[in-house]
Amino acid sequence: MISTKRTALQLLCGGCSVAALLAASAALAADPQKVVVYTALQAEQLPVYEKAFEAKYPKFDIEWVRGTPAEITAKLLAEKGDPQADVVWGLGASYLMQADKNGQLEHYRPQGFDQIKDAFKDRRTGWPVWVGMDAWANAICFNTQLTAEHKIPKPAGWKDLVEPAYKGQIVMPNPSSSDTGFASVAGWIQTFGETGGWDYMDLLHENVSSYLHSGAKSCAAVATGDAAVGISFGYAGVKLANNGSPIEVIFPKEGLGWEMEATAVVKGAKHLQGAQAVADFSASAEANTLYNSYYQILARKDVAATLPDNYPAGEEEALIDPNNFEAVAARRQQILDEWEKRYSGKNAPKS
User: pTM higher than 0.90 for the full model?
Assistant: First the structure.
């Protein structure tokens, strides 16, 4: 019996030779193979990363499934018995740890792994289940105009923010709705200890006017003068400052809570070769250069981050180390429940 594909080729080729027919058949067989990528990356990042990946690996064609970190994590966990994702590219490490604990990530050591900084590696064995891409860290956005007008001192560290001068002058993101907020809370617990972290947040709460639902909104409130201090991340403040807002970005001296984006191959991936190709590309110098358009802390040792104008130095050196992503992931809901019980009375309405 002659296959339908061959019959179609013969009709197209007419009197083609057998060799030409086989060549045409091979060309059809070489159509790109699908690879399903789950991600929490921003929408504008997807076409940039996809174009670069598919130029390097034309054999594969990315099919994105995008959602919030919580949505992507819940989808992964629900699909344990029948995984639909091949690879996760761009999800916070503390979220990926939930899938890892559930036994859903495959051990894979990508090309270029030796060039990844230790803080961005799953170092439990020589064969990691996740590899970091880039990171963002907590920072203080400070309104410099209010310093003179209301005699509000410039803070140098987190503990300065519990002083009476900041009463009602602080906004920060709610950790239940903002990864920046959760990174702050997890960072304080690791920096000051379990008891010390909650004691610190009790005192800070007295000076907070509102818990917002976005890290960027905290800096935006400082830019408009609605608050003197916003707990946020560095790039949000620098972007506003470069657009003319009276904002200074401060990296507190005690250290910075932080989160990384990471990549992992899904156990039971239906398109394993494509998943591994995505992991290889994600760990490459080329990909890290692309990440630098959105983040100022990169995973690769051999790719120097370019900082925007007026971006303060010393951010990466100030990251808390080690950042125990596994422990944080295991206690995430417990931490959020305790935080809501203590502080939710000052939550801003969700828009």
Answer: no
